[in-house]
Amino acid sequence: MRAGVRLAVDVGEARVGLAATDPDALVATPVMTLRRDKNRNGDIRMIVKIARDRGARLIYVGLPLSLSGEDTPSTQKARDYAAELKRQLTEAQLNTGVQLIDERLTTVSAAEKMRASGRSAREQKEAIDQAAAVEILNHALQMRTAGGAEPGQDVIHSSD
Prior knowledge:
Layout: E1 6-11, E2 15-21, E3 28-35, H1 42-54, E4 58-63, H2 75-91, E5 97-102, H3 106-116, H4 121-147, E6 153-154
Parallel strand pairs: 1-4, 4-5
Antiparallel strand pairs: 1-2, 2-3, 5-6
Helix pairs in contact: 1-2, 3-4
């Protein structure tokens, strides 16, 4: 398995949480929360910039599935977001992969950890997207270690 920075994205309707690993892909830390910019894709452009600046090898995008593993109304939105992210990475001539990864219960887990650490509801609201991205990234790193390969579904850029 190759070392290198991994990013994780938790896509929401209003905000996007971003987390990153160290260069050895061992430790996940929160990076920032971005406002969704559905009209001009400013949030995606910022993720591309961060991927370039950090030399990211791979970006995991959380895929919201139901508890039974079925698609939800948000599933296609995450797929579309990941496809646009991959398109912009390709356009920017970055060889950064994009993988969709199951994110079931990551926001719930992040909220529980924040509550256990004594963060108020207001503090949680401000940081929950980043914390969920950290959960997605930790989950991916655990799966990567256990399986010996990058987890998730490849997002392929099509020039259609």
